Task: structure prediction
Amino acid sequence: MDAVAPRVGTGGRPDAPQVGDHLALDLLNTEALSQGQAIDHWESGEDVHRWLVRQGIASAGEHTPSDLLQRGRDLRKAVREAIAARKAGEPFDVQPLNVHLEAYLTAPRLQRDAAGGWAMTRLPANGTAASLLGPVAEAAAHLLVEGDFALVRQCEHPDCILWFYDRTKSHKRRWCSMAQCGNRQKAARFRKRNHAE
Result:
């Protein structure tokens, strides 16, 4: 996982961790905490575009729309509010997410799949920010409708705000990454035990 060895993006900052095990949760994880300080991994439209490339949604050579940063942050806010409310069992306003879904224009396309058969796919109809972010908005909507929210969790480390979808067999995952937050928590308990002795 990227939490073990974060990739370094522009400006020497590490890229957002990809520990969510779901596109919508990785979207939320583009905001994080480091030593108690809030970090927004999206400081420019290029940052958002690079994240979309890492997710396999955009191509590296594509034009970055001028409104990609603002639309990306708006989508992230709408998804964060909806997921947090759904997790808490509270009602939420679907309209902010629907704005992004309605702006996602696609066109059907018939093409050969990897096995040589035929497949119907949908491609963005234009190169706008809404089209680039559309698959993320759609993934969030699918999570809200079909996801098992008993398995949608935030890391239990007190200094971490990252989200993940627990796909482990036992469904007992507690940390965004055992290599980071899990080990930090174990080390803190060890120090506390030794200090008490």
